[in-house]
């Protein structure tokens, strides 16, 4: 099979060998979880529980009306101890529901029946129910894109344009991270089933599971699962596609370009070129939501980095402080050697002050970088070498964008594509002058969006 790819990109050191061979281990007996109320891209939620309430595992604990919302569920059974602001994985404070697991029953007391501590939805056949019922299930299970921004999946699966192809994003192009790789190795049948469910919901005639060459060993497992799937046997068209190992191959626009040769237009979405892209973890969460009625209450993530003496791929309840995963011995960290902690991958993740911060629906990994990996380079003057331009897979001119932002010229920044920047960090990585390009673009996009919002409000007030 010929490996496909996109134009531009870079090759940061992969560093996946530390955890790629490690089976996913489940963290058990979590004593306390700190569940952020708002974990998705969209309108804020309200807590539905109060301090002192007994909650069951899977019970809805926060929700709101509105299309761009998904509920949050209790990841463990226990008592609500606090509802208060805590630091979240985006490094800002937000309301969190703290749940303490029930203590073991005292002597002579009867242990509660397991069914009294679980509140899942009834199973639902995705292939027999209506599209509306399927979308309602995806929302009710609190499913969001688990690879990054946490976009509500039920919104993604209700496109206003016809869909020709569902793409399972198995690229996992961020260095160090191996949780999608392990999920494809350990749950290939569920990955295929998740693609089939997505195809059914969006009425797509074709499904493609995209995987980078650096994990090509998982390809035969996927192909076997595709061949034996009852869905493909019933005629659904699903195949696996090898991609070249290159960053940011896992970006939706890059995946679509590599597989279909089509370009998502500026300001557009994958549906504009007939595609829906789904993360591997999200596909498996959808399978669980239909098969078992299980909401999104746990997720897999990779713990790695030079200061991580024992890396790991783990499944932990949402809301578990990462320090608890380490304390349980699933991973080991050389605390004195930590130069930086990052939630997410090293290219697009967020540096945080502590690893007490809980796992969220979109936490694909936590990295403990050593001093060498976290080395900070002083910015030098741009030498106009053009490397950033050649590497930008969105065909932007990062050096010019940076100048526009530095000069506060947001009209120019928007004109030359600031809002098309996917914040992949490739330009910063290749820049010989160590310009802090992506950092400027992240802040610049927030400023530009705020300016546009103000303009809109002023217009509405007229
Ligand atoms: S790569 Fe760096 S030095 Fe080269 S043009 Fe871009 S910003 Fe300037
Ligand atoms: S961060 Fe933005 S400008 Fe830089 S390479 Fe990525 S998409 Fe291009």
Briefly summarize what is shown:
The chain has 462 residues and is an alpha/beta fold. It is built from 14 helices and 17 strands. The structure holds iron/sulfur cluster (2 copies).
Write a structural description:
The chain has four domains: 26-102 and 113-117, OB fold (Dihydrolipoamide Acetyltransferase, E2P), CATH 2.40.50; 131-291, NADH-ubiquinone oxidoreductase 51kDa subunit (Rossmann fold, 3-Layer(aba) Sandwich); 297-370, Ubiquitin-like (UB roll); 387-461, no CATH class. A hairpin with a 5-residue loop joins strand 7 and strand 8. The strands form four sheets. Strands 1-14-13-17-15-16 form a six-stranded mixed beta sheet. The chain has a four-stranded antiparallel beta sheet with strand order 2-8-7-4, with no helix packed on it. The protein has a four-stranded parallel beta sheet with strand order 11-10-9-12, with helices on both faces. The relative contact order is 0.15. The mean pLDDT is 95. It has helices spanning 131-140, 153-156, 179-186, 188-202, 219-228, 230-233, 252-260, 280-291, 322-327, 387-391, 398-406, 410-415, 426-430, 437-461; strands at 24-26, 32-36, 46-47, 54-55, 60-63, 72-73, 78-87, 93-101, 165-170, 206-212, 237-243, 275-279, 298-304, 312-317, 338-343, 350-352, 365-370. It is of the alpha/beta class and 462 residues long. Helix content is 28%, strand content 19%. The chain is globular. The structure holds iron/sulfur cluster (SF4) (2 copies). One iron/sulfur cluster (SF4) binds at residues 391-392, 394, 396, 398, 421-427, 437-438, 441.
